[in-house]
Write a structure and sequence with these properties.
It is built from five helices and eight strands; from the N terminus they run H-E-E-E-H-E-E-E-H-E-H-E-H. The chain is of the alpha/beta class and about 240 residues long. This is N-acetylmuramoyl-L-alanine amidase.
């Protein structure tokens, strides 16, 4: 299931390369020139950061954001059940963040428990979709938005997360209809964003850098799944 605290900013300690004061420098004050140069460098750095942030937020200007219809889904046939807004970040993908990954998860619980968790603002995690063992697909976050599901900010921003009802240690969790319908969903996501249908771009949660999760686990049949995804992708094309 999506990892909590997955979208926190990285925090760094003392900046590297900080030089020690030379002997006899105690009590000295930086000269005017040093202050001016240092201030200019800081201003340039701030400007670059501000420009990068603005490039991500341009769509927040009134009238620019893509239209949103309450209850609308990105995958035909999916049912909409909204996640808590605390478990994702509103965005305008792929215009502000390119999408180039699909991340496969397993809920480690029932469908109902996953929905409850994703609607809990204190959970701090949720995926875009849940696929049930009986094949039903529920969408809880729009693909436009950044779901907190991967435990890695960069991967959250670049991916769509799909949960699957069940347990990693139970092979019986992964039913025929679950594989088939999940593959159709992944194929459509890949088609929509021009994502390559291969194991570099369709990955398990365990393959996300920095994660401590193991899903979808050893019983998830990747060969079978990718064959179904490629077949569905060709059919759609």
């Amino acid at each position: 299931m999506g990892e909590t605290q997955s979208d926190q900013e990285d925090r760094t300690a003392k900046p590297p390369g900080t030089a020690e004061k030379p002997p006899g420098s105690a009590g000295r004050h930086p000269g005017r020139r040093a202050l001016l140069i240092g201030g200019a460098v800081a201003a340039v750095g701030t400007a670059v950061l501000a420009r990068d942030e603005l490039s991500r937020l341009w769509w927040r200007v009134p009238g620019v954001e893509k239209p949103r219809t309450p209850g609308a889904v990105d995958f035909p046939g999916a049912t909409w059940v909204a996640a808590s807004s605390a478990n994702y970040r509103r965005a305008d993908r792929p215009d502000d963040y390119a999408i180039d990954r699909v991340v496969i998860h397993v809920t480690q619980g029932s469908y109902a428990s996953a929905v409850k968790a994703f609607q809990d603002p204190g959970h701090q995690a949720a995926a875009h979709y849940i696929v049930r063992q009986r094949g039903d697909i529920t969408q809880m976050i729009r693909e436009l938005d950044v779901a907190f599901h991967a435990g890695n900010r960069s991967y959250n921003e670049r991916s769509v997360g799909i949960e699957h009802e069940g347990f990693v240690e139970r092979k019986s969790s992964f039913t025929d209809v679950m594989y088939t319908n999940s593959a159709r969903l992944t194929a459509e996501i890949c088609r929509r964003y021009g994502i390559s249908v291969d194991r570099e771009h369709v990955i398990g949660h365990v393959e996300v850098p920095g994660t401590d999760h193991t899903d979808p686990g050893r019983y998830w049949d990747w060969d079978r799944y990718m064959t179904l995804v490629r077949r569905a992708h060709r059919t759609a094309a």
